[in-house]
Predict the structure.
Amino acid sequence: MKEDIRNKLQNVLEDRVFHKTEDCISYGYDGSFGQHIPDFVVQVQSTEEVQSVVRIANEFNMPITPRGASTSLSGGPLPVEKGIIMDFSQWDHYLEIFPEDLLIKASPGVITGDIHKLADEHNLMYAPDPSSSSICTIGGNLAENAGGPRGVKYGVTKDYVLGLEVVTAQGEVIQTGGNTVKNVTGYDLTKLIVGSEGTLGVITEATLRLIPKPLATKTAMILFDDLYTAGKSISTILTSGVRPSKMEILDNNALNRVEDYAKLDLPREASAILLVEVDGDPTILDKELQTIKEALLQIGVDKVDIAENKEDEDKLWQVRKLVSPAIVESGYTKISEDVTLPLSKIPDMFKKIDEIKQKHDLNIVVFGHAGDGNLHPTLNTNMRDQNEVERVEDAVEEIFSYAVQLGGTLSGEHGIGTMKRAFMTKELGESGVQFQKAIKTALDPNNLLNPGKIFPIAGEERLVLRNE
């Protein structure tokens, strides 16, 4: 059967079909854990090619897993049931801006950073800004509903998608949304597809909304003597009358990892720092930062350093960008989690993580998008130490459980994939999971589109990091 499938795929894609193990092995991983080698890899470059591959998959009942740049941290592009990897990374040749309509159109393999650059050339902005924007694809961002630091003021990917071209599980092409900000013709299928992790349809083109680029920005670094006050300050700032464009937090552990890595002369003694950016009319930015300073004084926080120029501002944001590479550099396997909480509950989560760290004797780094409650508790783990791995699994489960208990969610921007599917029922309940499964079954009755993702697997009740 594999030879028949290969022949049919090659008739469509010629030399852009791979089947040898040595060619497919690098397509079996992402930024999370585990490796699953596909039977085939196809590099699609048109909607018609996607349709043909989907129809061949239906003929042979073979799973399809869409894949962009594989920066996912949740297992989204892992071919857990083998089958066909549909690689979009080579389909990056269509990127067109329509500045008078404030929109941009892109094929799924376009790098998100290139969208930012093109918008910037026209004094416009594509607001979603995931940390991996220089390497991640827009198709992957759409599949996972990626976020980023600007989420606190501007929202996430789904808030900037006007329309999509999608190939269905049956190989048909549909259009969702359109070219207008307002569109209430029927169900909002655009938002249904965005964040569905390739399980409901295959995105082949996106129409994205642009906004005017802010005239100026200004950044402050706030230092804290204790982590609880740092958490409390987030709500204090957001209720001060100012809406920051970015609010990023680093705990002492994260701060020192970056200092060890880059030698930036950071305040090692601080329990945490908060980076706050305001944007807009340059004549009001100093006033907004002064409002923030006055609000913080009410809770006893007075260590606020404001960048004097663009160069100093860039240096401050470099601190945030270096957290992940600094953690990787410090050793062992990096496990990045992604819980989101009501703002008032952030201090409680900080306290809980500290308890979990002590209880399980683990080194946990906390950083994240403070302004929208999206924290990234991150661990370094020696995957060869079985006892340590088990402690990490226990710790992660406790973090997830507490996030849900506080009224939060399992994922703010990384998606569910394989990493968090065991916890879906904990957040949604059995009826909630079944409701979502019903949508999946209706649109993909043969379960060919990215199977093994999002939904709990029988017998899998917790995160498992080890290959057993």
